[in-house]
Amino acid sequence: MNIVESDKKNVVICGDIHGEFETLVYNLKINNITDSLIIVAGDCGFGFHKASYYDILYKRLAPKLRTQGNIIFFVRGNHDDPAYFDGKTFVKKYMRCIADYTVVSVAGHHILCVGGAISIDREPHLREMELNRILRKDKQPLYWKDEAPVFLPDEIKELTQSGIKIDTVVTHTAPDFCEKRSKSGLTEWVKLDSYPLNDIALERLGITSLYDELACNGYSLQKWYYGHFHDSFNIVIDNVNFVMIGVLEMKMLLRT
Questions:
Q1: pTM higher than 0.90
Q2: Which of 156, 152, 43 is nearest to 97 (CA)?
Q3: 20 to 30 A Cα–Cα from 85, which one of 116, 117, 149, 160?
Q4: Among candidates 12, 20, 9, 61, which has minimal Cα distance to 39?
Q5: Where are the beta strands (DSSP E) in 81-166?
Q6: pLDDT tens digit sequence for 101-125
Q7: Euclidean distance between CA atoms 222 and 97, whole angstroms
Q8: Closest CA to 5 of 111, 88, 143
């Protein structure tokens, strides 16, 4: 179990950014978001460049974040290299990638973060990677086979035993009873990859199992945020407000 504490009083949840780190920091400025913890709900964009790229990027953004008084935590998406999300590889003063099942303790909230999802565009990415291999092009990966979320009930049991009360959850994808539930947008992708529907069903079932495990252990959840679907929607189910967040969209969890 990983616990990361923050002394920030304001908390913002952001949708996918797909490598637009500088746009995110700029959006914080123009929206006058200061002294806040920002949690990006996956598809951050880690892994599409060499490690030195992210170090240089951080050096460029750190002064701006310091001036704003903001820090950013990144949750793993399917368009992220899982190697960055071990809680150690990318940990800076103002930006860090957090491991799955990390609990963020901030402003009286305990936020459970679990990343991962299935890429519906994996087949063309795999083909491009294979072509790069054949042509001996030194290209970064476009797809990671261990992208899916992993349901770890023992992590929840450990949380329960610790006495930590989770009130908010941030995942990349969503339980299967949440939007989006229609598969109409997957028609063209199924022509390229015959397995995504099954894999997506298992992905969503895993996050549903996470919800069920939290419910069975007596957690009184208030909010559940997720990205992945590039759209916005919210609905209250069993007294939990499930909030889908669009690309670079920001939702205020807490502002003092």
A1: yes
A2: 43
A3: 160
A4: 12
A5: 95-97, 102-106, 109-114
A6: 999 999 989 999 999 999 887 777 7
A7: 24
A8: 111
What type of residue sits at position 178?
C
Beta-carbon contacts of residue 162 (< 8 Å; ≥ 6 apart)? 1
Half-sphere CA count of 98, side-chain side, radius 13 A: 33
Average pLDDT in the 152-160 region?
93
pLDDT above 90 (res 248): yes
pLDDT of 194: 55
Rounded to whole angstroms, the Cα distance separating 214 from 151 reads 12
**Domains of the chain with bracketed CATH:** 2-254 (3.60.21.10)
Selection from 78, 82, 62, 76 nearest residue 22 by Cα: 62
Angle at 92 between CA 89 and CA 94, to 5 degrees: 145
The strand pairing partners of 223, in sequence order, are 168, 241
- Arithmetic mean of pLDDT over the chain: 90
Please give the sequence-ordered ranges of beta strands (E in DSSP) within the chain, or none if there are none: 2-6, 10-14, 36-40, 71-74, 95-97, 102-106, 109-114, 168-171, 223-226, 233-237, 240-244, 250-254
Cα→Cα distances 223→35, 134, 144, 167, 243, Å:
22, 47, 29, 7, 7
For 82-232, strand residue ranges (E) read: 95-97, 102-106, 109-114, 168-171, 223-226
